[in-house]
Amino acid sequence: MSAVFLGVRHHSPACARLVERTIEELRPAQVLVEGPAEMNGRLDELLLGHELPVAVFSHYRDRQRAATSWAPLCDYSPEWVALRAGRVAGAEVRFIDLPAWHPAFAERANRYADAEARYEEATERLCRHFAVDSSDALWDRLFEVEPDDGLAERLDAYFELVRGDAEADTGDRARESYMAAWVRAAVDAAGDRPVLVVTGGFHRPALRALTGSGDRDGAGGDGWERGADGWPLVPAPPDGAMAGSFLVPYSFRQLDAFAGYQSGMPSPGYYQQVWETGPEAAADGLLRMVVERLRARKFPVSTADLIAARSLAQGLTALRGHPRPARIDVLDGLAGALITDDLDRPLPWTGRGTLTAGAHPAVVEMVAACGGDRTGRLHPGTPAPPLVHDVAAQLAGLALDGGPEATYRLDLTDAADLERSRVLHRLRVLGIPGRARTAGPAHGVDPVFTERWEAQPAVGREAALVEAGAYGATLAEAAAVALTERTRAAAAEADRLAGALFDAVLCGMDGFSDQLLGELSACVSELSIAGPLGDVLATALGLWRHDRVFGMARGPLLGTVIDGATERLLWLLEGARGSSGVDFSRLRAVVAVRDTVLHAPELLSVTRETAAAIAWRIAGDPEAPIDLRGAAFGLHSSLGQVPGTAGDPAEAVRTVARAGTDVLGDWLAGLFALARDEVTGAVGNDDGNGTGGGAESLIDVLDGLVRALPDDEFLSGLPALRQAFAFFPPRERDRIAGRLLERRGVRGSSRSLLRTTADPLLIARARALEESVSRLLARYELEATP
């Protein structure tokens, strides 16, 4: 006997009925199904009493590549029906596709992703011929609402047509070659009994061609080695790679094309009803459900509206020549009866894609009703990856396995609570729902030593744990691998890299994070924006110097990151070119470099002298941003003199001031961000002249420059000057104000200069306006008589 090929659309009730009927009539010896061949030894596990939908979750990881994929199954999936009905009929049932880790599935997260994009031209021609808007409407028109008589022939014609216009890629050709090897082996094993092959319709024409002739020697004549039992061997992962497959619960939302699913039919809740009760009952149920959902949300829907929607749906069914109501007939009928507003976008069922924000409330409820809210549940006897058992043991051992409403307040200075915190953070970075931190330290030197964790919706927790098992067998290992991948993905985004670093600290990564350390160091060396990289350096340095909670002080993880970030920042800063204005994030980066050179020199490849020399070159570079030049001058002053250089702040201020007060203000902002004490002296101390020991006070120099400014230049430069002095804390500003009063021989509180009744800029503009008006009045001799 030869093989009988059924090409199907994944998650199609019509195709599922055809598979079931064919197995009953054909009574095949073998039923071969598109699916992961590595699961063949575990079909009993797959056929336990699960509540569908479920999915086979597969993962793969080596040093170069990591991949995950899903093969979802619901009650009306033709693949599931083939497995179930085949077993009932006494057939041998096998999956025949390559393992999900195989390069043939590169960039494909869903095994059953349709090939519609590749035969788009053919489906567009058919849509025009049958006057429908989308491939989904076309499918309903041709298969779901038509009688089952002749369904197999219509499917054959459809897939021959669309495959004829599409070229399979390298991955599909490898998969089809492998599946053909299984078909040949099954025909050999079946003898005179038939073999049924159930695959996606895109593959059917190729499989028929590949198995029509050819050798049937020990190697299968196709390059795929066979085992001693005559069946193709399942390719094994490369040495050193980690791969596996497990069952996970799935949901209708994950299956729904309106939520972004790549394969099969949209509206799984609706088609579940079609599978269970038929198109007529499903249409009537959808009408009622949409009305009930809208009424529950206070959307006005009357009985007359329901009657109108039903009448419109029936009329559209007849007008379109459908023997039974299709999904679009019901949805269009509802839209016509319930939506009276002008719509600014097409109705979502006229195409594919996610439901966008701002959709009409009735449309939202229609899509939600069609999608359904079912979530699968695995049989209690389903094997789980080691991570699931490790998490359960750790939660029980640390008393974190309280009920769904349990809240935890943790004292991070307590060793037991710190370990509880680490476990909860590891679950968080793995994306396991159920608990969320609502209070706690925001960064490594945040003086907060308690955390609060509260219950959150735990929908999908079981599936998330199984999927996280792809990262490792233990919670600590899985979290470390997940953070390593996240760090690699954030290589060009320093803000995400800083978050990954702090998450590593919260998870307690020290001791088993060599790969994470390497990724952090590599990423730091590639960052190209100084500001965010400075945040990474500041975070790492603060933890290295001051952490007494997380156990990271003086740790090697942070030391390597600090060294790499400092060297990279000095290179980026010296190469900066720029524009006017003050870049505060870049100034914070220079501050981080200063603090690192001063307080952690033993970690650095760069010496203090080298850093000071770089700062001096930046300070004198006319093409460098002016705020960075001021910051570099301050960095040089903080680190000490370099032979052959001199840095007199007063003279530097006079030189910069010649370029204008705007430029002076930006330069001072950089200077004050780095070196207030070094350049201003102890204002108001020592000999009373504000010099801090005899040198010319920068405050005195600035006061003289500002007093000599014409009014228009003063007003122009005032915002930049105020911004620069904002770097001084209140106590220092108070001392500076006192010095200015002293220079003018004015007695009184310095606070009179710091606290005004209005915004100083507003006062300055008002004064300028008054003077302008006075000059205008004087010109026309209109000033008031004394």
**Beginning-to-end CA distance, first to last residue:** 122 Å
Please count the helical segments: 33
Q: Reading side by side through the largest sheet, how are the strands ordered?
A: 1-6-2-5
Tell me, what's the shape?
Answer: elongated
Model regions low in confidence, pLDDT < 50 over at least 5 residues: 213-220, 682-695
How does the major sheet shape up? 4 strands, parallel
| Tally of strands | 10
Task: State the oligomer.
Answer: single chain
Rg of Cα set = 36 Å
Average pLDDT score: 83
Query: Strand content of the residues, in percent?
Result: 5-15%
Helix content: 40-55%
The structure class reads: alpha/beta
Question: Any overview of this molecule?
Answer:
There is one protein chain. The chain has 786 residues and is α/β, with parallel strands linked by helices. The chain is built from 33 helices and 10 strands. The strands form 3 sheets. The protein has a 4-stranded parallel sheet with strand order 1-6-2-5, with helices on both faces. The chain starts with a strand and ends in a 7-residue tail after the last helix. The model is unreliable at 213-220 and 682-695 (pLDDT under 50).
List the main descriptive attributes of the protein structure presented here.
single chain; 786 residues; alpha/beta; three-stranded antiparallel sheet
Task: Compose a concise summary of this entry.
This protein is α/β, with parallel strands linked by helices.
List the helices and strands and how they pair.
Layout: E1 3-8, H1 13-26, E2 30-36, H2 43-46, E3 54-61, E4 66-73, H3 78-88, E5 92-97, H4 120-130, H5 135-144, H6 151-164, H7 170-190, E6 195-200, H8 204-211, E7 242-249, H9 252-255, H10 268-277, H11 279-296, H12 303-319, H13 327-338, H14 361-371, H15 386-397, E8 408-411, H16 415-429, E9 435-439, E10 450-455, H17 461-468, H18 475-489, H19 494-507, H20 514-524, H21 530-546, H22 556-574, H23 584-599, H24 608-619, H25 626-639, H26 649-657, H27 661-674, H28 676-680, H29 698-707, H30 711-725, H31 730-743, H32 751-754, H33 760-779
Parallel strand pairs: 1-6, 2-5, 2-6
Antiparallel strand pairs: 3-4, 3-7, 8-10, 9-10
Helix pairs in contact: 1-3, 4-5, 7-8, 10-11, 11-13, 11-14, 12-13, 16-18, 18-19, 18-20, 19-21, 20-22, 21-22, 21-23, 22-23, 23-25, 24-25, 25-27, 26-29, 27-30, 30-33
